[in-house]
Design brief:
The complex is a heterodimer of chains A (92) and B (270). Chain A has 92 residues and is α+β, with helices and mostly antiparallel strands. Chain A has helices at residues 3-10, 17-34, 38-55, 86-90; strands spanning 56-58, 64-70, 73-79, 82-85. A two-stranded antiparallel sheet of chain A has the order 1-4. A two-stranded antiparallel sheet of chain A has the order 2-3. In chain A, strand 2 (64-70) and strand 3 form a beta hairpin. Chain B is an alpha/beta fold and 270 residues long. Chain B has a single domain (5-266), classed as Rossmann fold (3-Layer(aba) Sandwich). Helix content of chain B is 40%, strand content 16%. In chain B, strands 3-4-2-5-1-6-7-8 form an 8-stranded mixed beta sheet, with helices on both faces. In chain B, helix 7 links the parallel strand 6 and strand 7. In chain B, helix 5 (101-112) runs parallel beside helix 6 (128-135). Classes of the chains: A alpha+beta (92), B alpha/beta (270). The structure holds adenosine-5'-triphosphate and magnesium ion.
Chain lengths: 92, 270
């Protein structure tokens, strides 16, 4: 974060347009590079949640599946906080 | 020639400065003693002849060379003031109907036998014109401006260059405005190089002299102009030749108290 970002935050100003440009580009390029549209990603996210939910109790509110890019390599990153294992609960 | 280099100059998005770079780089390399040819691969909208001031001297084009109705040396237009530079003009736009990637390879192959550098001015877009041009290229320079649409299109082109095995691919950032960058109203140089993950070959400032030189048909690198863009194009040529020349720092282009405050505002605090 830069001093300007901090001031923007404190003064509740709009972020610098270059910052907005960078963030928008990172998002759109992650989609371009993986050839995944936001809708397809959404669909996949729902299906991943369904599959994982069969095995563990996940926190749907906190969970996220997103595309992240670094050095032209795009990764699908799933962050799915587990409440507690269902197998464990059935053993109780 | 065994160590001849065939370099595609491309961008994806139109109007970001491909032809201007090709013309200036061609003159600069030739001025440094390298035998250089610029090949206009923009058959639909040819402009390279105009930027070099050679539009009235075209007799034959790549079209006649391919059809074998003239020899290559008849079609090559030598530059008046810079005899190390030649232009191979694009043919009639109707060439687009039959031109194939192999045809471009044939032309580039013939040129690489006689020249140290073959610079190919690529058409905008990623359709047939691009595919034909990329087939002939060994290396590429991707040129972009610090704007979201240009960077996005550059990214598409870089992906395609990778698929075609073109390497190395280097980046030129054009129309940089130091004041806007200092105000963080323009993507920073690092933003663009990080996002595109390419080595930076050069930075060219927004410069009115570019338009003046285009009016005259005399590239800025021709007459030793001291304008910022002229210097930038010259440095790009030297770096291509392997010289180690430090990159310009847009922040240093602006001095004074206000520029210092702006730089302070950009200081990373976390
Ligand atoms: N550094 C610069 N400063 C100011 N103007 C510039 C600069 N670079 C390019 N231009 C202007 O931008 C316009 C487009 O440049 P140019 O024709 O080189 O782009 P291009 O990528 O070849 O376009 P096309 O995709 O149509 O072939 C021209 O009017 C040119 O003078
Ligand atoms: Mg052009």
């Amino acid at each position: 974060m830069t001093l300007r970002d901090l001031l923007d935050k404190i003064l509740r100003r709009q972020p610098a347009s270059a910052t907005t440009a960078r963030e928008r580009l990172q998002l759109v390029l992650a989609h371009d590079r993986s050839d995944l549209s936001p809708e397809t990603l959404d669909q996949m996210r729902r299906e991943i949640f369904e599959v994982v939910a069969k095995y563990v109790d996940i926190d749907l509110e906190e969970g996220d599946v997103s595309l992240e890019t670094e050095d032209r390599v795009t990764a699908l990153v799933a962050n799915l906080p587990i409440r507690r294992s269902m197998a464990a609960s059935s053993n109780e | 020639m065994t160590n001849s280099r065939t370099i595609l100059i491309c961008s994806g998005k139109g109007g970001v400065g491909k032809t201007t770079l090709t013309a200036n780089l061609g003159i600069a390399l030739a001025g440094q003693g390298a035998r250089t040819v610029v090949l206009d691969a923009d058959f639909g909208l040819r402009n390279l002849d105009l930027l070099l001031g050679l539009e009235n001297r075209i007799v034959y084009t790549a079209q006649e060379v391919l059809a074998e109705t003239c020899r290559l040396d008849q079609a090559l237009v030598k530059h008046k003031q810079e005899p190390n530079l030649a232009l191979l003009p694009a043919g009639n736009p109707r060439m687009l109907e039959w031109l194939k990637p192999e045809d471009m390879q044939t032309i580039a192959g013939m040129l690489s036998e006689r020249f140290d550098y073959v610079l190919i001015d690529c058409p905008a877009g990623i359709e047939d014109g691009f595919k034909n041009a990329v087939a002939a290229a060994k290396e590429a320079i991707v040129i972009t401006t610090p704007e979201v649409s240009a960077v996005r299109d550059a990214d598409r082109v870089i992906g395609l260059l990778n698929t075609h095995g073109v390497s190395p691919v280097q980046l030129v950032l054009n129309r940089v405005r130091p004041k806007m960058m200092a105000n963080q109203d323009m993507l920073a140089v690092d933003d663009v190089t990080d996002i595109l993950a390419l080595p930076l070959l050069g930075l060219v400032l927004e410069d009115e002299q570019v338009i003046v030189s285009t009016n005259r048909g005399e590239p800025l690198t021709l007459n030793g102009s001291a304008s910022p863009a002229a210097k930038a194009y010259g440095n790009i040529a030297s770096r291509l030749q392997g010289e180690d020349i430090p990159l310009m720092d847009p922040a240093k282009e602006r001095r004074g108290i206000r520029a210092r405050v702006r730089r302070l505002m950009q200081t990373k605090i976390f």
